Amino acid sequence: MRVVVTIQHPAHVHFFKHAIRELEAQDHEVHVFAREKEMAIDLLETYDIDYEVLAGESDSLASLAMVQATYEAKLLRRARKIDPDVITAIGGVAASHVAKVTDAKSVVFYDTEHAELIQQLAYPFADAVFTPDCFRREVEAPHVRYAGYHELAYLHPDRFDPDPSVLDDLGVEVGDDEQLVVCRLVEWGASHDVGNGGFDDIEDVVSQLEDAGGKVLITAEGDLPESLESYQVSVAPERMHDLLAHADLFVGEGATMAAESAVLGTPAVYVNTLSMGYTDELEDYGLLYHFDGEERHQRGLHQSVEILEREAPTFWEGRRESMLADKTDAPDMILRAIETVVPEDVALREEARLRREARREEVTTT
User: Fold this and answer.
1) For the CA atoms of the chain, what is the radius of gyration?
2) Between 93-102 and 61-82, two packed helices, what is the crossing angle to 10 degrees?
3) pLDDT greater than 50 at residue 189
4) Distance from C-alpha of 94 to C-alpha of 7, rounded to nearest angstrom
5) 160: helix, coil or strand?
6) 259 has pLDDT over 80
7) Could you tell me how far CA 217 lies from the centroid of its own chain?
8) Which domains does the chain have, with CATH numbers?
9) pLDDT digits over 198-216, tens only?
10) E runs forming strands in 272-338
11) What band does 310 get if pLDDT is binned at 50, 70 and 90?
12) Residue 204 DSSP SS3
């Protein structure tokens, strides 16, 4: 097969990296196209994945529309030359549109219910949409639910072994009477972030966590107050999961990192007005605590302090094992999803491709 994978966020690199390797190991032809977004390009380089950048970053919702249009137009030009069998993506707006025009099949993965615009633009054109079975919305496309989370595509214990050297590499020392807390702050610039929020006062967050014995490290998308700059750590994108795995607690506004912490067995306190099916289900497993509403700041901090003061690490590992027992191996699911939409006899697909190329040559010659 000829498979196109599109990347528009660092988490997409993690999600597809094992599937890309498996596809290439099976001698399929894989083309990866990316948009510059935070550390996505750095991750592609780190994992030695061949890629091509089609568009840059955006600094506002208005510029995001232009960047997306540029990305889609360039993807269409490249796909016409490649003539892929499958185009796959998370979200899948460009992937589903380009697949329709190029006679490819589109496989879209998604797990974010409130990103309605993306779903309205992608789902009607998709050949198959795969979501975790905790996804709470109906999908206007062939819809397959699977028992898992995006994060398990790269953090399942069969695929990920945390490296304990991450703290030494960061130069971080945690005292005998301290517990490591990773705090994540978001910038609230995505289209689905409009009108939503997290903590009221990050200085209060740090103060209360420290009073409870926390050694606080902050990773933030935007700028921090000058008083908190010393708490910020610069973690290589491929080492962030090592840090989360060795933390005693995650406290933050980002759903993806909260879920990553939870599936690693690190209790996560997620403070955000937005909820997803996967955050709700991880809360059912007792690995994540979600706080929204007007009192989310204080309620989230109260829970964080309670975890630091009361719970032992083995308590969370038991809850993680219960969750893993119910879930499937996501990279294998990705491969099955791609294979499902492709005709059984790929030779027929190749013959059709050769006929199209012959017709193009005839037109050019004429």
Assistant:
1) 22
2) 30
3) no
4) 10
5) coil
6) yes
7) 22
8) 2-156+328-365 (3.40.50.2000), 166-325 (3.40.50.2000)
9) 788 999 999 999 999 999 9
10) 288-291
11) confident
12) helix
